[in-house]
Design a protein that fits this description.
4-stranded parallel beta sheet; alpha/beta; RNA-binding; 31 strands; elongated; 30 helices; 949 residues
RNA sequence: GCCUUGAUAGUUUAAUUGGUAAAACACUCGACCGAUAAUCGGGCGUUUCUGGUUCGAGUCCAGAUCGAGGUACCA
């Protein structure tokens, strides 16, 4: 048998079938670094319309996890797609560097600031620690193929940034949003300082649980609000009874809270203990429990009243000469107690919130060491927990104690000392939501912003509507100072605050935040210094990151006057966090939101939808994925997953993604391998000279590209993934590439038929490589250099591909090809039947006869002899239905109603050794006895002509 | 507890205004041996559950279950 293989145009390429991504990707990273891709992108972008995706800073602590990877990859996909769409899209990554978690890490190694180590040294250690964290995270982010200004990221601890935080604060003060107030904080008596939420742990503790009378002052006014039970009149004193587990907070009591919706009763008792008959006010739902607790068997309800009706009525404090009002709050429940809650705004978060609604005094008679301050009647100098007994004694003396018991319950403790902590009001700084209309403007601006997904709007509106004033002060070491001098008497900031802040900012720009902590007030205030106190509180770190629009957007991304980014993109937790802190500071400073659109992605969860955690061992580490499957697989997973809800990730799911990747990669490889001898400059045919099927392929590609560009526009990457994959597997793999294989391989190298396919393939690969670039960045860059023709050094330095416009209006239109595909599917089913029956192996061993209804007949007839190439069979004959299909022919009804009978049979002819078609005309040329006529023509003749396929 | 949000084949995603549940992957059976750790063909769902509205519900309504994010409370 003669060997004709050398007369075929078999595919060849150096583009590896296996990606070897984990090993190869670092080479591309180096290449991008060496060519300064980011710098080149900026140069190329000069003058183009700007698209700013402003990066939200991750916290500089710990290794990056899958959620970080998702966030950065989504941002990268968007930035890159905008570049391809012709925008100048800078990307400046940043880090959040101050704050408690870093302090705690440093404290573990160096000890507590101000105790074992000076605050200045402590801050230095924090700065060094944060820097190391940034290095580690930067390395991991870069490894994922994220392109950005990694050499010049923004760090909230840069001296310049720290100075700008102070300037931003100055501007907010200037606009009148700051106020000083008091707020209860967790306070450890042993530490002598406030604790952050993260430093509090909950443990069981036994406390005295007491019921206390608050006598009604104006009995007539009270009873007037009630509905009396007929025939029941009462006698004896009338009191509202509260229940508390912290007797020591009673000195700070300012009110008694009832639930407006609850039913309360006035109950007549015979007398509790040795006391005389009296009337008590209790929530109806708790009446039986309470009476049982008091040991009362004989009692009766004499009146009913809604909590609502009692608002504002005055009660007597149990042991001070003080009138306290009845107030209303939804936090009052019937789970425990009496339905009436002792309210001390200085000693509880809830009491503070409800108290601020009623303008109650935030009284805190307890000092930092837990003792009642001088001047506290009856209790001065006593330690709060020991004062419990004293309070009980006083209550007994005043006949105010109804009942007492011990209660074991969960109670906050200091994580260092394991000792119970207290709530204690301390002076704090706030950004007011209302005094300059911040809340109102924020709500207006939220409506001006595009939220993706749209429910983000309702979410953040709900939060902004309900949030209290923003407490921006912390009593911490590693943070940007609230650089104010306040008057010793008035507590007011210095009148020249504006100017002082700029002076301080300049110093901080030189020396960092220590410039403030080291500052002697005299240096700036001179003789006035004796009247002022230098504030040493630090800012909430949410303030730091909240002003990146000022410190970064305004100063580095080419947006000057009023920094507004095109897009902020973060996880859904940031409606509470960065989206909000950025919104509030921006409005306080400029009156507008800092972003035009805010996009949120869900959290990463495992395949069952449960959150990832170390203890469950269901986590996916991005570093590990990059080093085994490759970063492109992780990127493909991010793109393939609908980020609007939770994103499921697991080893299984990533393996599926890797399988899908291989399909895409092999399609690319096959296209490249068929272009090894193709030079577009020399061989490309004009669009109107292409074969019909090749026109279809180009048109299909263009169609898909249009819809994909819309998907990029709408940030719906999972649709792009589905479309690309489907294109590779269906349009290309099972149809176009399968059919054109014969033409590629068997026609003459430089024939019109072959150059036509190559032209189509060339356009297709030029398009695909760009579709993929934002997602499979490494693979696209690798592909870029394998595509024939002149090209620049990176796929990212290009726009989307302009596919040639093809017109299929001639004999076969797009919908005609769709119907041909439909007919082909039916024929494939029959071929499979024959194959299973053992009649044939390859489809090329079969003859097909079709008995067709009118329309499909006319359509297939247009293909003439080339129908067999479309069906990939040796012969394909069409007959009208009137020719009476044989019994063995299978009947199909096509979508347009046309009928078709399909008959398949093994070919009677021998197989051409070159093209593998079974043909009657094998051996027509005696010099090539094993070849069919067509192959003879292609080997020694002038080559076959094709029109359609 | 409250606010926001989700649930479609083993997996990832589709399904205009309610109108026969669609792909791909995986799996499986087979073919090919000129994309070969590749390629081609054939095969697989009570749309989480329970009710309701409707001629008709994945889609609308009510409730439940399980999950995610945020927030509050434990006086």
């Amino acid at each position: 048998m003669a060997d004709y293989k050398h007369t075929l145009n078999l595919p060849e390429t150096e583009f590896a079938m296996r990606g070897n991504l984990a090993q190869r990707e670092p080479e591309f990273l180096k290449r991008w670094d060496d060519m300064d891709l980011y710098g080149k992108l900026r140069q190329a972008g000069a003058g183009k319309p700007l698209f700013v995706l402003h990066d939200g800073p991750p916290y500089a602590n710990g290794d990056i996890h899958l959620g970080h990877a998702v966030n950065k990859i989504l941002k990268d996909i968007i930035v890159k797609s905008k570049v391809l769409s012709g925008f100048d899209a800078p990307y400046i990554p940043g880090w959040d560097c101050h704050g408690l978690p870093i302090e705690l890490q440093v404290e573990k190694k160096k000890g507590k600031a101000g105790v074992k180590i000076s605050p200045a040294e402590f801050r230095k250690a924090c700065r060094e620690y944060a820097m190391r964290q940034v290095e580690g995270q930067r390395k991991d982010f870069k490894r994922l193929g994220v392109i950005g200004d990694w050499d010049h990221p923004y760090l909230t601890m840069d001296f310049k940034f720290e100075a700008d935080i102070i300037r931003a604060l100055g501007r907010i003060i200037d606009k009148g949003h700051l106020h000083k107030g008091a707020k209860p904080v967790h306070w450890c008596i042993d530490c002598g300082s406030a604790l952050a939420e993260a430093e509090v742990e909950y443990e069981d503790k036994t406390s005295p649980a007491i019921d206390v009378r608050f006598e009604v002052l104006d009995e007539a006014a009270f009873m007037a609000q009630c509905q009396h039970v007929p025939g029941k009149s009462g006698k004896g004193p009338l009191s509202v009874v509260i229940w508390t587990t912290t007797p020591w907070t009673l000195p700070a009591n300012q009110a008694v809270a009832l639930n407006p919706e609850l039913d309360y009763v006035v109950v007549q008792t015979d007398g509790i203990g040795e006391h005389v008959p009296e009337r008590l006010v209790i929530a109806h739902a708790l009446l039986e429990d309470v009476m049982a607790r008091y040991g009362q068997e004989h009692y009766h309800v004499i009146a009913n009243v809604k909590g609502q009706a009692l608002e504002g009525l005055k009660l007597a404090h149990p042991f001070y000469e003080r009138e306290v009002p009845i107030i209303l709050g939804d936090h009052v429940t019937t789970e425990a107690g009496t339905g009436a809650v002792h309210t001390a705004p200085g000693h509880g978060q809830d009491d503070y919130v409800v108290g601020s609604r009623y303008n109650l005094k935030v009284d805190n008679p307890v000092d930092g060491s837990g003792k009642f301050v001088p001047g506290t009647p009856l209790l001065e100098g006593q330690h709060v927990f020991k004062a419990n007994d004293a309070v009980l004694d006083i209550l007994k003396t005043k006949n105010a104690l109804v009942h007492q018991a011990a209660l074991r319950h969960s109670y906050p403790h200091c994580w260092r000392h394991k000792s119970p902590i207290i709530f204690r009001a301390t002076p704090q700084w706030f950004i007011s939501m209302n005094q300059q209309g911040l809340r109102k403007t924020a709500l207006e601006q939220i409506k001006q912003t595009q939220w993706v997904p749209s429910w983000g709007e309702a979410r953040i509106i709900g939060m902004v509507e309900n949030r209290p004033d923003w407490c921006i002060s912390r009593q911490r070491t590693w943070g940007v100072p609230i650089a104010l001098f306040v008057h010793k008497q008035t507590n007011e900031p210095h009148p020249r605050t504006n100017e002082l802040i700029e002076t301080v900012a300049k110093r901080v720009e030189e020396k960092g935040i220590d410039a403030w902590f080291d500052l002697e007030p005299e240096e700036l205030l001179g003789a006035e210094a004796k009247d002022y106190v230098k504030v040493t509180d630090t800012l909430d770190v949410w303030f730091d990151s909240g002003v990146t629009h000022y410190a970064v957007l305004k100063q580095r991304e080419g947006i000057e006057a009023n920094p507004v980014a095109d897009l902020y993109l973060e996880g859904s937790d940031q409606h509470r966090g960065w989206f909000q802190s950025s919104l509030l500071t921006s409005i306080a400073m400029y009156g507008t939101a800092p972003y035009k659109a805010a996009l949120t992605h869900g959290f990463t969860v495992d395949e069952k939808g449960h959150k990832m955690s170390k203890s469950k061992g269901n986590g996916v580490e991005p570093q590990k994925v990059a080093n085994t499957l490759g970063a492109d697989i992780l990127r493909l997973w991010v793109a393939a997953t609908d980020y609007r809800t939770e994103m499921s990730g697991s080893d299984q799911i990533l393996k599926r993604t890797a399988d899908a990747y291989r399909r895409i990669r092999n399609t690319i490889r096959y296209l490249l391998s068929n272009l090894y001898d193709f030079d577009p400059a020399q061989h490309a045919l004009p669009a109107d000279k292409l074969l019909s099927l090749d026109k279809w392929a180009v048109a299909r590609t263009a169609q898909l590209q249009d819809s994909m560009l819309q998907d990029y526009e709408k940030y719906e990457f999972h649709h792009i993934y589905q479309k690309v994959h489907n294109f590779c597997a269906v349009d290309m793999g099972s149809f176009y590439l399968d059919i054109t294989k014969d033409r590629q391989y068997t026609t003459q190298k430089d024939s019109h038929a072959r150059r036509s396919t190559q032209t189509a393939m060339y356009h297709i690969i030029e398009a695909i490589v760009r579709w993929l670039a934002p997602i499979l960045s490494f693979t696209a860059e690798e592909t870029w250099n394998f595509i024939p023709g002149q090209r620049n050094e990176s796929v990212f330095l290009n726009g989307w591909y302009q596919l040639p416009v093809v017109s299929l209006d001639g004999e076969l239109a797009m919908q005609d090809w769709a119907r041909i595909i439909e007919a082909r599917d039916a024929i494939n089913k029959e071929l499979e039947q024959l194959r299973v029956a053992g009649g044939i192996g390859s489809g090329l061993a079969a003859d097909v006869t079709l008995y067709c209804g009118r329309e499909i007949h006319d359509l297939l007839a247009k293909l003439g002899d080339e129908l067999r190439f479309v069906l990939i069979t040796s012969t394909a004959t069409i007959q009208p239905v009137s020719d009476a299909p044989p019994a063995e022919a299978q009947h199909y009804t096509l979508r347009n109603g046309d009928e078709m009978w399909v008959a398949v049979s093994p070919s009677a002819h021998t197989k051409c050794v070159r093209c593998w078609h079974h043909r009657e005309d094998i051996g027509v040329n005696s010099e090539h006895p094993e070849l069919c006529g067509r192959c003879v023509e292609n080997v020694v003749g002038s080559g076959e002509q094709r029109r359609f396929a």
